[in-house]
Structures are given as C-alpha cells and as structure tokens.
Amino acid sequence: MYAFEYKKAFSLEDAKSAFDSADDGTFMAGGMTLIPTLKQRLAMPSDVIDLGGIEDLRGIFVDGDTVSIGAMTCHAEVAASTDVKNAIPALAYLASLIGDPQVRNRGTIGGSIANNDPAADYPGALVGLGATVHTTTREISADDFFTGMFETALEDGELVTKVTFPVPEVASYRKFPNPASRYAVVGAFVAKTKDGVRVAITGAGPTVFRVPEMEAALNTSFTPGAIADISVPADDLNSDLHATAEYRAHLISVMAKRAIADCV
Amino acid sequence: MQISLTINGKQHSGDVEPRTLLVEFLRYQLGLTGTHVGCDTSQCGACTIHMNGKSIKACTLLAAQADGQDLTTIEGVAPSATELHPMQEAFRENHGLQCGFCTPGMIMSALAMVERHKGEDLDEKTIREELEGNLCRCTGYHGIVKAIAAGAKAMQASQGGA
Ligand SMILES: Cc1cc2nc3c(=O)[nH]c(=O)nc-3n(C[C@H](O)[C@H](O)[C@H](O)COP(=O)(O)OP(=O)(O)OC[C@H]3O[C@@H](n4cnc5c(N)ncnc54)[C@H](O)[C@@H]3O)c2cc1C
Ligand code: FES
Ligand code: FES
Q: Are A3 and B18 in contact (CB < 8 Å)?
C-alpha cells in the first residue's frame, strides 16, 4: 500500500472540506473494495476520507410506499431489517446474498453502487425497482446512475447520501453466483411496479441493464411463459474465464424466468 | 497517528501509519499473533475478529478505522488461561482442524454465527452458508461444521438452555 493521509469525517461538511483540501482525495465507506485496491497498489490517493463517522448517512426508514436506505448502511443491516423484509423482501434477500457475513458487516449500499462493479448485486435492485439515488447535490434516477463498467453519474467529490426505493407490488431477485467469489455471474431482478414491470440484469454486461422486450411481454402477461421465446443477444455481454457471453445470455433467460415464477 | 481502542477488555493505544492494516497492528505492534493472514484478497477469513460484536476481516480494515472501537480476538475468548471456551473445546473434540491455521478465524466466525442465530437451531446447511467467508485448505470442512454445531449446543447448555 502506498502511503496516504487518513481523515475521519463526522459530517458531510467535514467530508467535503477534507476532499476539497486534498490533492487527490478518495472517500472510504466500509473499505471492502477500496482497501483491497490500495493493497494491490491499484490506486494511490493522497488522502483517504473515512465516512464511517457520519451518523446521518446511516439508517433504514420505511414510510408508506418508499424504503429509504442511508449510504453507509451495511448489507447485514439491510438483510436483517424487519422493515425491509416486510416492504420489499426481495431487497433484503438480495443483501443477504452479497459476499459473506464479514463482508456484509462492513460493505455498504453507497460504496457498492458508487463502485458499480459489473458483477455487484445492488445495481440490479436499484434499476429493477426504479430507485432514486440521493447525493450531496441532487437526485439521480437509477436508470441514469449506472453509466458503464465501474462508472456512474457521480461527479468528483459528490457523495451518495441515500437511496429511496418505491415499494413494488411484488419483486424477486435470482442470482447465479460465481462459485468462488459469490459475485453475480448473472442476476435478474424483476418487479411489478405501479408503472409497469421492470426487468434488470446485473453481472452479464459491462453494467446493469433493462430488457425492454421482456418488460413489454410481462406487462401483457406476468408469467414465466410470456418470456419463453425472448433472449438477449450475446454480442455486448461479458466473456471471461467464469462464463462465455453465450452462457451469460442463456442464464439471463433462465434467471428472469425463475424470478417471475417466484412472483406468481 | 495515535489510536486507542479496547481489545479483549483491555485498553490499548499505539502509533500507526494511516496505511497500517488492523491485522498488522494486532500482530506486529501488540503481539496478538492469534489473528492470522492467509490471503491477500479478503477471501479466506483467517484474520476474522469481532468489532463491536460483529465479525470482520482485520486484513480489510485500517487500524485507524478501529480507533475508539471495542475488539475481541481469539486471545480474548477463553474464560481463563487454563480453560477453553466451549467452542474451542468443540473444535478439539470434533477434529475441527488439521494444521490449525484457519482455526482462530473459524472460531471467531462460529461465535458470531451463534450470536446471529440466537434461539434458533444451527443446522448443517446454515453453518455451511455462514462459513462462506472462511477458507480451510486441509480439513474438507466436515469436522469444522460438526465442531460448530457441537460448540453452539455447548454454549446454549452453559447459558442454562437460553
Ligand atoms: C470477499 C468479497 C466478496 C464480495 N462479494 C460481493 C457480492 O457477492 N456481491 C456484491 O454486490 N458485492 C460483493 N462484494 C463487494 C461488497 O459488497 C462491497 O459493498 C463493495 O466492495 C463496496 O464496499 P464498501 O461499501 O466498503 O465501499 P468502499 O470500498 O469503501 O468504497 C468503494 C468505492 O465507492 C466510493 N464510495 C463509498 N461510499 C461512497 C458514497 N457514499 N458516495 C460516493 N462514493 C462512495 C469510494 O470512494 C470507493 O471508490 C464483495 C467484497 C468482498 C471483499
Ligand atoms: S487474511 Fe483476511 S481474509 Fe484472508
Ligand atoms: S486446518 Fe489447515 S487451514 Fe484449516
């Protein structure tokens, strides 16, 4: 690890001024991606600004038809939350599948989405439910937030403060985990919302994406059979030592059908 | 930078570089070498300890992040210098180890798992799922899973069946 300055922020103002006064500052949430990256010397920030002291960024609030989750809320809290389990069980279930217990005790929703690993689970839930990302400066719809592999709409120094999820009629997440890392080889998040059905696929492409053909068919008939003949072309999908693009394309249909079967 | 924290009920302080990992601070500055390092990828769980009662990987935390927190390491679980914790005893009795390298992390994960599933039965499936973050290169896990089930029962019994 290269040397850096460490600063712990206790408020958003603290975090901002630490970031502004640093040459090349980086925020740290749980550190579950950042610390391995620093250990491998893949990053060399001048300052690491720990968000762990900002109480305002923590917590889960359910209010009628929205669930709102603070950026620094860890996966274990979301997985265990009775409020989340009652309002959007698929979201609590998704959080329970991330990594392992030790990682879930540290990794956060804000860190996960800001990092936008192509194989991360949370982007599936955000896009699948039509969530809104709240930042220190604005609100961004999930559809516009994830822009590419490890890329988001966040500007330099902009912090995710919370994510709000509209409560769907019904939703389900099905993931085909990498047997070693448990990251998603393919994950399908399907939700029936008041604005129609949403299908979000994570793990398969450079970033999470929706499948409009499946959504249209499911709006007509919300059954696994409705998408039996719909497949996603393999052209733009990821191919790596874990799975070829063709295999991922096949898994998308299988996982989406399973997710719909859970809902009906 | 100066940090001070509670480890196994005792107050400790030390001067660390911002880039010092918590596991390095424990092992090299405090001599608490029960917490092992088995990988460089946050996968193996040999470095598992508890921070404020929650299991974490001490290789994926800066010592600075633990400033002011309450930690428990494998050195802190036995009731006395001559007595083993029921979970340690269960590992001994059920052949829950071969080389023993993964054992401290396994035991710290096992204790966190018992805590999380308080009042529920820890069946084999749950134990195997909960061990996701801990790797063992020798035992094939069978003895470890048996040991954790037995240790969980012994802990329940010693707490008056609670
Ligand atoms: C062994 C292991 C297995 C894992 N398995 C899975 C898995 O199966 N599925 C999965 O989805 N994930 C998995 N993860 C990732 C994990 O879920 C973490 O959430 C993820 O690594 C992000 O970590 P973090 O929240 O600690 O953020 P950090 O590592 O602290 O930060 C990540 C990035 O986000 C930025 N950031 C953090 N918080 C904010 C914020 N509020 N606003 C703006 N930027 C911010 C940081 O600057 C940094 O660039 C795994 C990780 C490990 C180590
Ligand atoms: S040494 Fe910490 S997870 Fe392997
Ligand atoms: S007993 Fe050798 S690594 Fe587990």
A: yes
